[in-house]
Write a structure and sequence with these properties.
With 64 residues, the chain is mainly α. 89% of the residues lie in helices and 0% in strands. It is built from two helices and no strands. The chain crosses the membrane at residues 6-23, 32-51.
Length: 64
């Protein structure tokens, strides 16, 4: 995992938290929830290949 990916995840987290706070204070709770859900899904799609690689490595480790 590269440091660049960690910075991208942190940037998305900061952006989503600011947007959620702004939306909550303006009375748009539903949009705030959808924004946080979209941020979570975006980050999940970014780290999904690394999770797949981890499970593949564990499978190779125990398939001796």
């Amino acid at each position: 995992m590269s440091v660049q990916l960690i910075f991208k995840i942190a940037a998305v987290g900061i952006l989503v938290s600011v947007l959620c706070q702004v939306l909550k204070h303006s009375g748009r709770e539903e949009q705030a929830f959808l924004t946080s859900l979209a941020g979570l899904l975006l980050v999940l799609f970014w780290i999904l290949p690394y999770i797949q690689e981890l499970f593949h490595s564990i499978e190779q480790l125990f398939s001796l």
